[in-house]
Structure formats: structure tokens, C-alpha cells
């Protein structure tokens, strides 16, 4: 089974029950909003401004 979301990208070690529980929490707490980087409507936590793809690009110094 693949676990992915716009907050953190691909989730790993999902055999761990704590990781699965946190994933479920993140999914339930996320809202649909426009990413400040790419402009797509993504499902992210309310306090996040960028999807995982744009956040990764910003961390690598890519101007988005």
C-alpha cells in the first residue's frame, strides 16, 4: 500500500502502527487550500503554505 500526501510526500515505514496513526491524524487535520508555490489546490495542514513538492524545491534553493 502506498501512503502519500501533499504535506510530507511519500510516507515510509508504514508497518509501524504509530506512523499509520500519525498519517491518519494528518489526513483528518488537512484542508483543501491553494499552494503558495505552484497555485494548485492541495490538501495540506492549515498552517502550511506550500505543498511537499514546492517545499522541497524551496529547501534546495529553487525559486518557485
Mean pLDDT, nearest integer?
Answer: 95
Strand order of the largest sheet: 1-2
Percent range of helical residues: 25-40%
- Beginning-to-end CA distance, first to last residue: 31 Å
Overall geometric form: globular
Instruction: Compute the number of strand runs.
Output: 4
Count of helical regions = 2
Strand content: 15-25%
**What is the structural class?**
alpha+beta
Let me know the largest β-sheet.
Answer: 2 strands, antiparallel
Low-confidence stretches are: none
Order of helices and strands: EEHEEH
Rg computed from alpha carbons, rounded to a whole number of angstroms: 12 Å
Q: Please, how many domains?
A: 1
What does this structure look like?
It is a single chain. With 64 residues, this protein is α+β, with helices and mostly antiparallel strands. It has one domain (4-59). Helices cover 33% and strands 19% of the residues. The protein has helices at residues 17-29, 52-59; strands at 4-5, 9-10, 31-34, 41-44. Strands 1-2 form a two-stranded antiparallel ribbon. The protein has a two-stranded antiparallel ribbon with strand order 3-4. A hairpin with a 6-residue loop joins strand 3 and strand 4. 14% of the residues are buried. The model has no long low-confidence stretch (mean pLDDT 95).
Amino acid at each position: 500500500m502506498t501512503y502519500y500526501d501533499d504535506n510530507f510526500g511519500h510516507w515510509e515505514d508504514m508497518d509501524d502502527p504509530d506512523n499509520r496513526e500519525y498519517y491518519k491524524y494528518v489526513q483528518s487535520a488537512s484542508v483543501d487550500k491553494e499552494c503558495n508555490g505552484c497555485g494548485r489546490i492541495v490538501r495540506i495542514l492549515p498552517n502550511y503554505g506550500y505543498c511537499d513538492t514546492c517545499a522541497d524545491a524551496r529547501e534546495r534553493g529553487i525559486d518557485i
